[in-house]
Amino acid sequence: MKMITAIIRPHALELVRAGIQDIGISGLTVTEVKGYGRQKGHNEMYRGAEYTVNFQPKIKLELVVGDDDVAKAIEAISTSAKSGRIGDGKIFVSTLESAVRIRTGETGEAAI
Amino acid sequence: MDTLAIEVSYALDTFYFLMCTAIVMLMAAGFAMLESGLVRSKNTVEILNKNVLLYSIACLVYFVVGYNIMYPADPVNSWIPGIDFFLGEDNTTESVLAGGEGAPYYSAMADFIFQAVFAAATMSIVSGAVAERMRLWPFLVFAVFMVGFIYPVEGYWKWGGGFLDQLGFQDFAGSVVVHMAGAAAALAAVIIIGPRKGKYGKNGEVHAIPGANLPMATLGMFILWFGWFGFNGGSELKIANIEEANAVAKIFVNTNMAAAAGMVAASLLARFLFGKTDLTMTISGALAGLVSITAEPLMPSPGLALIVGAVGGIVLVFSVVLMDKMRLDDPVGAISVHGTAGIWGIFAVMFSNPDATFAGQLIGTVVTFAWMFIASFIVLSIINKFAKLRVDEEEEMEGMDISECGMSAYPEFTSDK
User: Fold this and answer.
1) Which CATH architecture is the domain B3-201+211-405 placed in?
2) Residue B230: Cβ within 10 Å count
């Protein structure tokens, strides 16, 4: 089991969701986050004074997949979230120790 | 005039006055929305509390003593008004039907309530300038003195028939008597309490502290604009004949012209100077246009009103930048909108009103400013001795909603206990 954590542009969320669904992965948790990478911030103006917005709004999505699905999940996310410009985001993959479905008590890959 | 004509005219003038009062009253909502939109969300409850409480306190204090100081039945001399309390009886039917010069042509009660909402508007100007750092109750204590004494004395000098009126100072609806007066008191408060933490850097750099809710601020601007029709239109005090009805209509047109021109001028200038169409400057520009035309909304042609408003919008933008250069922190630009544009407006009277003289306008402005600033400075300094005007540094960082009001504007993750 792997936990895939991806940071994407907010407007790419719907494309990513559809892309993941197309390859048969069910379940996705999203959080509105702010952060910066190479894109850095941008400058804004307020009543004659300039200020910098250092943290860009992004969407963090988390999904858990079986080991066999990791490659195609990464493929689906990158294809749908990619614009080719700085700020498209990143995908992190980590090993997941266990998972439990609360309703049934199933564990492991059966729970995802 | 026959009795029926007098009665109808009295009823219509009173009705018009009361409608204008209700429209001006809504400006309290305009100020509340504008100011709560231009502060950070952690100070929302506090600024709203200030706005709503100052309105009510102003009405109470003005009822108890303020109105009688501003319009004394028996003034001591042209400098010192008399002192009296509460309200007298309304006009008797006989006195109205007597007709002729000097007979009352609208209800005295209507006059009181119209003047009361003006007094509240004057105080509303202060709350925006001291936002995010002045404690709630010391502010409200100041409101008692401001509306009960400081503002009425200066109001007496002009509108109550005092010495400024006698020397020919012209201020139709209060560019100086209301707006610059409020701004002068606000300036005294801003100097005493100092800028918000983090507003100015050590090397003189200006840090923007953007407002939390610009849709709210925009709504506030439009409510104030709406209120101004009552503010300027009502100040004609009469509508019940052809000449007066035309005058009121012209005031409405001119008021709207000045606001629209002020807004467009300020937004174009901001776009040119800063490279961005800053919504907050656009909003302040409309208000500056309105303040500018308030001193004389009747005499100018609509074209001249447009120019007066446009210059008001331009003056506003430079004033906001200059205030920051002088490290005078005014989160909503109240001193620039009401003070700087008010001063422009009072001198713009000379373009259209032949009764206005440069000396008269200058003396009226200087005297009003000096009185409002010095009296406010003294009263605020005394209050500051007993109850600190400024919040502690930690409270300021946490936001005044929690320290002053014990609640948040948008509470989340709460539980019953």
Assistant:
1) Orthogonal Bundle (1.10)
2) 24
